[in-house]
Amino acid sequence: MACGMNGPAPNIRPDLPQIRQLDEAAANRIAAGEVVERPASAVKELVENALDAGARRITVEYADGGKTLVRVGDDGHGIPAGQLPLALARHATSKLAGEDLLDIQSFGFRGEALPSLGAVGRLMLASRAAGAAEAAEIRVEGGRVAPPRPAALSRGTVVELRDLFHATPARLKFLRSDRAEAMAIGETVRRLALAVPATGFELCDVSSGGRRVMFRAAPGDSDAERVARVLGRGFVDGALTIEAEREGLRLHGFAALPAEARGAAVAQHFLINGRPVRDRLLLGALRAAYADVLARDRHPACVLWLQLDPHRVDVNVHPAKAEVRFREAGLVRGLIIGALRHALAGAGHRTSGSLAGAALGAFRSQSAPHDRPRPGALTAARTWQAPAAPTMMPGLAEAPAARVEAGSCYTDGDGHIGTQDRPLGAARAQLFGTYILAEAADGMVLVDAHAAHERLVYEKLKAQRAGTGIVAQALLIPEIVELTPDAADRLLTHAAALAELGLTVERFGANAVAVRATPALLGPVEAAPLLRDVLDEIADQGAARTLEARLDAVLSRVACHGSVRAGRNLRAEEMNALLREMEATPHSGQCNHGRPTWVRLGRGDLDRLFGRR
Q: Which fold would CATH assign to domain 223-346?
């Protein structure tokens, strides 16, 4: 032993380092390194204190991205003057009695924020407790605490932090630009504003002596109103409403349609018992729920609240309380995935609500008075003409006679194709060999035929696999596909799983495979491109994904090869059959990669576009 309970052992070498207690200033600076990474971290700690104080209104001000000033004021219950020095002591808190670390229902509970901030900056804390005759303030700089003194404050608490990291200047080098730090502060305030819709927030930039309001939310908002203030009214109007409950867990909130996915995971908000968190379990459940309708480089947007007994979740596993640990992680994951998948399936053929506005904007940008139509621009839209002999459309049905569903081509009394009672209307034309133009009762619909049919084929393949199994179509003459030895080995490793998907492959020499059967639903298909896509998908799949997820991903690639190709001329019956199948198929509002499959322009939108209203 290097030392004993009563001091160094008699035979210890004096040149060896001795164990000693850290002084209070050093301990606070170390704690600050865990709790305060940047100005946004300071804002988070101070706003959480204000919320725990029962504040109904919170004002956050910052200057120079929070590097020179962060000020948080609230109208909460305040701190008695005699307890101000204790508020700046480590591990001193009014939020936790200490008996039960699992029954935590406040934002903060460790009692480290204020002393940590005082150790790395110039801190002023002013407060007037409810019922107190006057306010008091206390200051701390570099860990040195001054005695309390009277202050002018009508109610609540104001905490002012100046010159963050002035006591540890080396850490200033790791801060980003003022703009980047200000954006981080804004994101922090917005996340906390989602946590407590009943509390009002105001975020202001006071750099250079001005005062610019960056965000404002009124007290008493409903969940939907607060989400609209943070993510925009368009998100709420177009989002799916999530409501689910299972075994004492309640999930509610909003999730975006796949067509509204983002290029980065910047609009994913989870709130556990009102606490904003960025937890890997929750993010993984979100990705799994959308895996079937989104490409892997796209990210869904959501605001989801999860309520559960505090004893079933541990929030004391991360210094900044950004992560949690669930006692029943599988139950939580299953609830989130099930609720989101149910909502996505219930959306049917619904697509992004923002597409119409974008489409009208594109029309308006091309309709300036001085614009002239390009020669031939209007002739690109080809009205359909039924060919003399019907052609087979792979994937829509098994035989030409069954391709047209009952009522898919319906007429009014004058023999014209009708539009009533059909959400996607009736096909009027095919444009550029790619898009279907349909007339609905309340406007016009434009459909990407390939993207829509890709989703329909995929859903049919999944239904077959879940039912009696995917029907395979044996090739009269096996198709030989040349591959590299590594690629052939990788493909044949998954031969059994591919056979379940209707794709039968066998080795044919060292550098080739023989394709003996393909999914019947695809119709005639070129084997070489199909195998290349399957190999790409196998290479992309991580080992962490479940077998079902990997099979679905391969099926998604396979479905693309059985879909209507751009440039193919479609008959009226085929176009209308596609529209009817879209109306009856889940997820048909977006293709397998999350892109929208159709857009609607309302009659009123068209009238306004042409100045009729």
A: Ribosomal Protein S5; domain 2 (3.30.230)
Dihedral of the alpha carbons of 277, 278, 279, 284, in degrees to the nearest 10? 130
325-361 pLDDT tens trace: 899 999 999 999 999 999 988 877 776 555 555 655 6
- Residues 6+ positions from 582 with CB-CB distance below 8 Å: 349, 424, 447, 452, 456, 588, 597, 598
- Assess whether pLDDT exceeds 80 at residue 541: no
Residue-wise pLDDT tens digits, 236-266: 988 999 999 999 999 999 999 887 888 888 8
CA 118 to chain centre: 36
Can you tell me the distance from the alpha carbon of 530 to that of 328, in angstroms, rounded to the nearest whole number? Answer: 41
Q: Is 319 exposed, middle or buried (0-12, 13-18, 19+ CB in 10 A)?
A: middle
Which is more confident, 374 or 325? 325
Cα 580 from Cα 404, distance rounded (Å): 9
Identify the bridge partners of residue 124 per DSSP, sorted by sequence position: 139, 160
E-state strands within 511-589: 512-519
Tokens of 410: 């319906």
DSSP-derived secondary structure for 274-343: TEEE--HHHHHHHHHHHTTTS-TT-B--EEEEEE--GGGEE--SSTTS---EETTHHHHHHHHHHHHHHH
Residues 6+ apart with CB under 8 A from 552: 291, 292, 462
Cα(139)–Cα(118) distance, rounded to whole angstroms?
8
Class of domain 24-93+103-217: alpha beta
Q: Name which residue leads in pLDDT, 464 or 372.
A: 464
- What are the residue boundaries of the structural domains of the chain, listed by start? 24-93+103-217, 223-346, 348-365+392-613
98-135 confidence digits (pLDDT tens): 555 555 666 755 567 788 888 888 999 999 998 899 99
Contacts of 280 by beta carbon, 8 Å cutoff, 6+ apart: 323
CATH (residue range 348-365+392-613) = 3.30.1370.100
Q: Which residue reads 């099926």 in tokens?
A: 555
Calculate helix-pair angle for 223-231, 178-195, nearest 10 degrees.
170
- Token pair, residue 340, equals 């989101």
- Both structure tokens of 411: 């007429």
Look up residue 258 and give its DSSP letter: G
